Amino acid sequence: LDTAISANTEALRGTDRWDLAISDADLSFPAAAGTFSCVLGIPVSKADTPWLYSLLHRTLTDIGLSPYSAKNLYNRERPFMVKGDDTCTPADEEGMRSDGSYPSGHTAIGWGWALMLTELQPDLTDALIARGRAFGESRNVCNAHWYSDVVAGRSAGAAAVAKLHSKAEFLEAMDAARTEIERARENGLTPTRDCAAEAEALKKTFF
In principle, which of 79, 88, 125, 177 could form an S-S bond with 142, CB 3.0–4.6 Å? Predict the structure, then answer.
């Protein structure tokens, strides 16, 4: 299945879905903060939604590092290393060669954020989960991970978020971010991303 899905993603090279995978690969802030902006219908930035921005920024490390015990144990080669071709982010490939493929850290982050946001906006659960799933699948499109890496990354992300719920500081930040999202809507703030283009790109699938 990993091999078949990896072959299927080749058709997406150079498409708008490939471009979205490049965007999803960027975990730096402020870029990554806007990942779920279109689903939420508001801008996610330090200026407009500081509590939400900080919450995503701070949990990036907690969730992103959750797969590393398994990564270091299995040290699995990534698809581009096995297949001998490139990824959607060639500048990152040298670092990825020494960073195990299984499970996917990017996927853990996207899935963890999606789960957190469903608590803040339960009415948007389906759309948030779909975007979180697509964020991980961008790693397949990017030729940076096998499909089973992405599936395992979701488990790691979910476990990390469950653990965060034992921290009072996390729960306080969640409450503040929930209020902030509602205020942003009341004030008529809208996303700064091209949401129509993102939606069009997400229509393209590979299995």
Answer: 88
Identified catalytic residue from 17, 106, 131, 154: 106
pLDDT tens for residues 145-165?
Answer: 999 999 999 999 999 999 999
Q: Name which of 184, 29, 38 is nearest 109 in CA terms.
A: 29
Q: Tell me the longest C-alpha to C-alpha distance in the chain.
A: 51
Q: Does residue 90 have a cis peptide bond before it, meaning omega lies within 30 degrees of 0? A: no
**139 part of the active site:** yes
Reported as a pLDDT band with limits 50, 70 and 90, residue 131 is very high
Say if residue 207's pLDDT is above 90.
no
Is 126 annotated as catalytic?
Answer: no
Give me the chain's average pLDDT, please: 97
Q: 175-194, pLDDT tens digit by residue?
A: 999 999 999 999 999 999 99
Please indicate whether residue 106 is annotated as part of the active site: yes
Distance CA 173, CA 106 (A): 22
- Assess whether 145 carries a catalytic annotation: yes
**Model pTM score:** 0.96
Q: Which of 139, 165, 175, 193 is catalytic?
A: 139
Catalytic residue among 17, 78, 145, 154: 145
Residue 114: C-alpha distances to residues 81, 107, 153, 163, 207 (Å)? 30, 10, 13, 15, 22
Q: Which of 149, 178, 183, 193 is catalytic?
A: 149
Per-residue DSSP letter, 99: S
